[in-house]
Amino acid sequence: MTQGQDNRLVNQRQLAEIFGVTRETIRKWADLGMPTRGGERKARLYLPSEVIKWREERAERAAIESVAITDIEEAKRRKLAAEAALAELELAKARDEVAEIELMGAEVGKAFARCRARLLGIGAAVVPRLQLAVDGVEMKRIVDDEVHLALGELSNGALELASGADEADQEDDLPADGGDAGAASRPDAE
C-alpha cells in the first residue's frame, strides 16, 4: 500500500483482496473486534492501516499469551518432576538405600585414617618378628600380613553406617602407639 492510500476507506471485498483472504475471513475479523468504519455489517468500510495495526497487536498478544501458557505448563511439569524425585528419595531413605554425603565422607575419612595409622605402625609391629625370622620368605610373609591387615581397615566392615557402631568402639581397635593391636593373638608373635 502506498502512502496516499493510507487514509482511503475500502469495502469488504477490497480489504479481502489487500490481505489475500476471503470475505468470510474479513467478516470473522470484524466479529473479533477489527476496527470498522461506517454503517451496517454489509456496508462497513475499513481503513487498511487500522486493520494492519489491529492484526499486529492481536498477533503480539497471542504470542505473549502463548509464551506465558508455555512457561506455566513447563513450571507445572518441572514441579511435578521435582515432587516425584523427592518422593522417590524419601522412599529410598525409608528403605535405607541412601546415605547422606556428609556421613559417608566422615566414615570414609575414618576408614582411611585407621588404614593410615595401621600402615604407619607396620615398622614397629614387624621389627621384633623380623629379627626372629629365619629367611627372606618368612620376612616377606610377616610384612605382607601387616600390609593386608592395614588394607583390611578399608574393606572389612570399616564403613559401619547402619550398624550403629560407636566411634569410640572403632578407635579402640588400634593401640595408642599405632602399633600392632593383633600381635599377641597371632601364633608367630612373641
UniProtKB/TrEMBL annotation:
Biased composition (Acidic residues): 166-175
Keywords, in A-Z order: Coiled coil
Record SUPFAM superfamilies: Putative DNA-binding domain
Domain of life: Bacteria
Coiled coil: 72-104
Amino acid composition bias (Low complexity), ranges on this chain: 176-190
Signal peptide range: none
Residue span of region Disordered: 161-190
Protein name: Terminase small subunit
Organism from which the protein derives: Paracoccus aerius
Lineage of source species: Bacteria, Pseudomonadati, Pseudomonadota, Alphaproteobacteria, Rhodobacterales
